Amino acid sequence: MERSARLVVMRGIIESRKVDSQEMLLRSLKERGFDITQATLSRDLKYLKAGKVPDGRGSYSYAFYDVQSKAASYKSMVQDFMRGYLSFGFSGNLGVIKTLPGHASTVAFALDNLEIDKILATLAGDDTILLVPLDGVSREKLIEAMAERIPGLKDSIL
Fold first, then answer.
1. In the chain, fewer beta carbons within 10 Å around the N or the C end?
2. Distance CA 56, CA 149 (A)
3. What are the angstrom distances between the C-alpha of 150 and each of 18, 50, 61, 146?
4. CATH of 2-68, one of 1.10.10.10, 3.40.50.150, 3.40.50.300, 3.30.559.10
5. If you classify domain 74-156 with CATH, what class do you get?
6. For the segment 45-77, what is each residue's pLDDT rounded down to a tens digit?
7. pTM over 0.70, yes/no
8. What is the CA radius of gyration of the chain?
9. Contact (Cβ atoms closer than 8 angstroms) between residue 6 and residue 25
10. In whole angstroms, what is the distance from residue 58 CA to residue 82 CA?
């Protein structure tokens, strides 16, 4: 029972604040009644799939690999989208995205993987993507949903 409770507390500590050393984590656990060794802490971190990752400010802190990989994947998808993206307009309620020649499938793949909940489907050619919104989704709602996931997109919509 103690290990499962400790793992829950450890996850909460890592998720709620920046933890940049095992010593800091050991102190936080001790304050909460869990007096463990560094070896036990290392095993627990491995079990939780937690490790030190870049925090974007030049240092490292503990995070969970699944969360970190999803964040890295999101960043990669936004970069792939922006690398080939030229413009975004509408024909009726259908979105039309223009890309650099040969980039439409990469941009559409990135868009699909950004999991924008207002998009039903994308269809890519060579340099054009047809974007089909869900039934009843207005242009404005589609733009808003896309802009939440793709920084800087709103400024380039025709």
1. N
2. 19
3. 26, 28, 26, 6
4. 1.10.10.10
5. alpha beta
6. 989 988 887 666 677 788 887 655 666 678 888
7. no
8. 22
9. no
10. 25
